[in-house]
Design goal:
Layout: H1 2-10, E1 20-22, H2 31-38, E2 42-44, H3 54-63, H4 78-89, H5 101-112
Helix pairs in contact: 1-2
Length: 113
């Protein structure tokens, strides 16, 4: 997870990511190194408080449309994951005034440049 976060962080302009909020899973045990290396404040949801990471829970729900709970993502092809993410991020959402997540994110990133 640490290397994935660092690679993602390096892919975008400085200031794109200002904080990160995660659950308390073991995949984030590297949170101190991420914070120190990237200067990215890390916040943690309280146990059994999924509403504190609402967009994360919503995204997990959307992913379940493609991958059932318990799916071993090590056995899912990169193209399969990329296709699912492209569909999810390309889907217009009412909460984004019918823009796609991709459109909103791109507008925000371009605004930082």
């Amino acid at each position: 997870m640490e290397s994935a976060i660092q690679a993602l962080h390096l892919s975008f302009s400085l200031g794109t990511f200002q904080t990160a909020t995660t659950d308390r899973g073991k995949e984030f045990s590297c949170h101190e190194r991420i914070r120190d290396t990237l200067g990215l404040p890390m916040y943690f949801a309280d146990p059994y408080s999924s509403w504190q990471c609402g967009s994360n829970e919503n995204t997990n729900s959307l992913l379940r449309e493609f991958f059932l709970k318990g799916t071993d993502f090590g056995k899912v092809s990169r193209s399969g994951i990329a296709q699912a993410l492209a569909w999810i991020n390309g889907r217009p959402r009412k909460c984004l005034t019918w823009k796609t997540a991709y459109e909103v994110f791109t507008e925000e990133v371009l605004h930082l440049i």
